[in-house]
Amino acid sequence: MSGTLISAPGVALPEGAIAYITLLDVSPRQDVESSIIARQTITDPDQLPIAFEVLYNPNQIRSDHLYAIQAQVTTEGRVVLRNCSAYPVITQGNPFVIEVLVDLVE
């Protein structure tokens, strides 16, 4: 599954930024946190937009489960950008290619 991280105009990435794009199993399950299926780490991306491709094992995907992308950009161990909306992907008619809006973390 692939896509692009985008942000509002004028948002610049700091030097040493690291982008993390994570594919999660977000199926509703009692007392269980989302499971990480796969993650791509992009060190020192130029600037936004950032193209990504999260490679995963198709055998881990179940058609009756819900999956979503979570994205964040860090610098010096601090999250500076992250998605605030849900981005469902892969199953139940959801896309394999998406644009993910990341917002500044206050």
Short description:
The protein is mainly β. It is built from no helices and eight strands. The chain has strands at residues 2-6, 18-25, 35-43, 50-53, 67-75, 78-83, 88-89, 97-104.
Key terms for this structure?
single chain; mainly beta; 106 residues; 8 strands; 0% helix; 8-stranded mixed beta sheet
- Radius of gyration, in Å, reads 14 Å
The total strand number stands at 8
Question: Mind describing the biggest β-sheet?
Answer: 8 strands, mixed
Share of helical residues: under 10%
End-to-end distance, in Å? 29 Å
User: Which ranges are low-confidence, i.e. pLDDT below 50, for 5 or more consecutive residues?
Assistant: none
Number of helices: 0
**Helices and strands, in N-to-C order?**
EEEEEEEE
Indicate the structural class.
mainly beta
Kindly estimate the percentage of residues that lie in beta strands according to DSSP. Answer: over 45%
Which of globular, elongated, flat, extended, rod-shaped describes the shape? Answer: globular
User: Taking all residues together, what is the mean pLDDT?
Assistant: 94
Give an overview of the whole structure:
The protein is mostly beta strands and 106 residues long. Helix content is 0%, strand content 48%. Strands 1, 2, 3, 4, 5, 6, 7 and 8 form an eight-stranded mixed beta sheet that branches. β5 (67-75) and β6 form a beta hairpin. The protein is globular, with a radius of gyration of 14 Å.
